[in-house]
């Protein structure tokens, strides 16, 4: 069993974060003498799940609902919704990474005039899909 300070240090968190997570129903550590929180192995896994879910973009309410529900369909619905959002964000990040990769390899003096760089932006600007006004 670990103290709140031990758990906070292990995960690089402030102790108030763990207390907040407890207050919103994400954690429920055992209590020892003097109402001191004591965290076991299951609590450590739960903290790891919370951190990973936050990294994936889940809010605390959805994390709580996901890890406390007894209904697999409810959990699945939460996960499917967030999976779609994460896939969208990954797609956007991949487009940004492609743009950076193109810029890294560009030899043009003015990167905005580079045909390869412009090609990576064409979809964003809809130049190929819609006519644009010329000045």
From TrEMBL:
InterPro entries recorded: DNA-bd_dom_put_sf, MerR-type_HTH_dom, MerR_fam
Every HTH merR-type domain range: 1-69
PROSITE patterns: HTH_MERR_2 (PS50937)
Protein name per the record: DNA-binding transcriptional regulator, MerR family
Keywords of this entry: DNA-binding, Repressor, Transcription, Transcription regulation
Species this protein is from: Lentzea albidocapillata subsp. violacea
Gene3D superfamilies documented for this protein: 1.10.1660.10
GO MF, one example: DNA-binding transcription factor activity
């Amino acid at each position: 069993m670990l103290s709140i300070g031990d758990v906070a240090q292990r995960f690089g968190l402030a102790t108030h974060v763990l207390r907040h997570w407890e207050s919103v129903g994400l954690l429920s550590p055992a209590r020892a003498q003097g109402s001191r929180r004591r965290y076991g192995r299951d609590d450590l896994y739960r903290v790891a799940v919370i951190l990973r879910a936050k990294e994936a973009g889940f809010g605390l309410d959805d994390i709580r609902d996901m890890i406390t529900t007894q209904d697999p369909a409810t959990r699945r619905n939460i996960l499917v919704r967030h999976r779609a959002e994460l896939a969208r964000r990954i797609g956007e990040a991949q487009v940004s990474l492609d743009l950076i990769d193109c810029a890294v390899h560009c030899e043009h003096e003015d990167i905005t005039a580079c045909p390869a760089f412009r090609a990576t932006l064409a979809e964003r600007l809809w130049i190929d899909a819609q006519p644009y006004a010329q000045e």
